[in-house]
Amino acid sequence: MEETAVAKVTTTGDAPLRLTREHRELLDQVLDKWSLQVLDTLCEGPRRFNELRRAIPLVTQKSLTATLRRLERNGMVERVVTSTRPVAVEYRLSELGGTLQDLIDSLYLWTATALPEVDRARSQFDADA
Amino acid sequence: MEETAVAKVTTTGDAPLRLTREHRELLDQVLDKWSLQVLDTLCEGPRRFNELRRAIPLVTQKSLTATLRRLERNGMVERVVTSTRPVAVEYRLSELGGTLQDLIDSLYLWTATALPEVDRARSQFDADA
DNA sequence: CCGCATCCTAAAGGATACTG
DNA sequence: CAGTATCCTTTAGGATGCGG
């Protein structure tokens, strides 16, 4: 894997850009509980609907459908229908969706390193209360 | 600003680490709508409760309190009380919280670059429907 | 196999009033 | 100023059943 754009940018002296409502709403639609897991799964390759369902514990069909529709609408995911009978539907990461991959990896990595300290903070907080 | 750990890691051939429930829950508690704005604001320096309130449009006192408590419990934010009358309460980013800063910047930057294409995808999707 | 429609419950969150 | 407490509305989302 080569140097990412993300890395370069965080190293420049970036002006304190303010988050606008539109930007936050996009993040909300892409980083929520189910979306994160869908994107994470699709990073490993295209998946059928029921494959995704099995890969993501506890997701209901309704939530998965809603999540996939929203990701598709936002251009993160492509939906490919094969008109056999019964139909086969495949979901894959779009090129735009792929630009999120490094970011998701970074997020996950951050949680992995932060979690021990977070756990300590939680114990401390709960003990004080 | 120097090279970030985040950048380095995404350049290593990382095994496909699976997101666990704990990791996702931490992200949920730290990247939600209000938390993101609180952290973003605190990146610029310590703030009083009502300063935060004014800085974050549409947040209610109840939501802000809940958000700050959760961030404090997770060790992201420190709460400093000065026992004057009336009391002064200051919130500041903890060291652990500071490790999120680059990540949030990256997220925001991603939205800024992706948004135009997302908008096109949305129009396309809505037109088809 | 994929997904929509309906019903229903639980949880998030706003409005308002009150306190140290 | 910085909250807590209460009430009440809105929304997310689970369960179930049907249809292409």
From TrEMBL, chains A, B:
Ribosomal protein among keywords: no
Cited InterPro entries? HTH_HxlR, WH-like_DNA-bd_sf, WH_DNA-bd_sf
Which keywords accompany this UniProt record?
DNA-binding, Transcription, Transcription regulation
What the entry lists under PROSITE patterns is as follows: HTH_HXLR
Domain HTH hxlR-type positions: 15-119
Among the Pfam families in the record, one is HxlR
Query: What is the name attached to this protein's record?
Result: Helix-turn-helix domain-containing protein
